[in-house]
Amino acid sequence: MSGTTRAARRALDRLAGVHPERGEIPAFIFTDPDLFRLEMDAIFTRCWLFVGHETEVPAPGDYVTRRMGEHPVIMVRGEDGRVRVLLNVCRHRGMRICRADLGNASHFRCPYHGFTYKNTGELIGIPFQKEIYGDAVDRGRFGLLEARSEAYQGLVFATWDERAEPLRDYLGAMAWYLDLLAGRAEMEVVGPPWRHELATNWKLPAENFASDAYHTLHTHASTAEIGLTPTPRWAKDGYHVYAGRGHGVMVGTPAARCIFPEELLPEYARRLRPEQFALLRTLANMPGTVFPNLSFLISAVTLKGRLVSHTELYQWQPLAPDRIEVLSWLLVERSAPPAWKELSRQAYVLTFGPSGVFSQDDTENWTQITRNSRGPVAGRLGFIYEMGKDAQPTGAFAGPGEAYEGKYSEANARGFYRRWLDLLQEAVEA
Amino acid sequence: MTAAREPAQARAALREEVLEFLYEEAALVDAGRLEEWLGLLTDDVQYRMPLRLTRERGSPTDVTREMQYFWDDRATLELRVRRLRTDFAWAEDPPSRTRHFISNVRVAPGATPDEVYVRSYVLIYRNRGDGPQAELLSGERHDILRREAGGWKLARREFIVDQATLGTQNLSFLV
What we know:
The structure holds two protein chains of two kinds.
Chain A: H1 6-14, E1 24-26, H2 33-42, E2 49-53, E3 62-68, E4 71-77, E5 83-87, E6 102-104, E7 107-109, E8 116-118, E9 123-125, H3 129-133, E10 146-152, E11 155-159, H4 167-171, H5 174-182, E12 187-189, E13 194-198, H6 203-211, H7 216-219, H8 221-225, E14 238-244, E15 247-252, H9 265-271, H10 274-281, E16 286-290, E17 294-303, E18 306-320, E19 323-333, H11 338-352, H12 359-372, H13 376-380, E20 382-384, E21 402-405, H14 411-429
Antiparallel strand pairs in A: 1-20, 2-11, 3-4, 3-6, 4-5, 5-10, 7-8, 8-9, 10-11, 12-19, 13-19, 14-15, 14-21, 15-16, 16-17, 17-18, 18-19
Helix pairs in contact in A: 1-2, 2-14, 6-14
Chain B: H1 2-30, H2 34-38, E1 41-52, E2 63-73, H3 74-84, E3 97-109, E4 115-127, E5 135-148, E6 151-161
Parallel strand pairs in B: 1-6
Antiparallel strand pairs in B: 1-2, 3-4, 4-5, 5-6
């Protein structure tokens, strides 16, 4: 980072106390304002960030507005059919040009002075341009700033870093698991994402989905008591997989029965590799996090006597050191029977929406940990991230990455914070 | 004369019954008497809270029912209440303090003679733990009440929330 700020240097000095491989993560990283500033630069302008699903913008002109870190963006399908991610900031004076959550538009007109942009980002209109600017403004130079964007299995990611590696390389081993999540069938989003704000640091939920199967035993014990899950230890069996580059996934297996609609097995078999299909048939659940802030989940519950799965994405958008906006999208197989889709949606809302009987209790943990991490004494506390430190990867699992037997481990959290630390240090030292 | 007055009196009496129902319901919810609250629901109750969106003026609607914050029926509401009675419902143990303020009540005929369609404004105040901060949820209820043997029952509730991004950390309380 050219011209390293004093705050960034101060933040880096404090990071000397963070040792992911030893399992030492101090509490202050969840509230420190200097670190937050550094994260915004070093992570949220460099990494590939999730923006939306292609089925949210099926037709030319369809758009949704989102955030990439601190930056408001528009994901829009242009007249030419291409999906672009454009900074939602007028080049003239910085006004937000699109102020709706979603819609369809051939062009965007800035409310302030009427600068007009095509849905491809091109600046096409400046009121009285000739008369007032003469030849001073070259419209070709002032299109909406476009982020680099690429999609994998319908998931659209974007980055502000022109030199970033291709998305497929960034995802690495995680791509294999995203195939199961979003590529096993033709998937579509169900409605717009729900959103709510939460008084927590973005890393806590990201780490939870990447690495923490252990919490289900106690935090979510209520779901076993009411029969949604078989026993409090239902999320223990399977594999804890560090997918590299900060990405972590936990593969719950075996399932007693197939949690997906049986009618779609031929479609799954056609779209997946044989070893992926074999795993899908015995998959019980699969939470994970694509570094930095996209989490996902395949989960199943017994509702009204039927075992039904739901597949969703979560994004933890940082707003402040102790505040995030949560967005979540339900994905469903386009060809699933309507009754199955309906039950899957109901299961998702009941368990993992803001009213969900799982997520309610997660929010309680994340908000109070954030609050507890503020003080100078508590802030220095090193939390315990040592679970599974001496475990060796197993060769018995078909998927890529470092797979450990059993889902309870903290290996993925150690990997997540190693990647996080590396990016912060590189940015300050560059 | 009498004929004109009677419907007006009947309307006033009906309105009084509806108000009493809504106030009693709010009192049970805010007191945490949720098993008794379940007794106010019909067996085929639908309990929904659609997403609210920011749309351009002139858009057909800013409410979407494709995805919702609550998608409940009697079976799932009973599950929610049973869960709160376990020893592991951390989001409500210790319990939140809530207050449901109901106003602007409008009563209209329902689809059948036994039903009424009731719209009302609701402001929900929630406070939790040792902080003084309030979480507020404002919205409009679209309810269907049905007259059954034991009196009025809630057959459908749709809560149209006034936020596109919820400001509450969760929805571990009823709307």
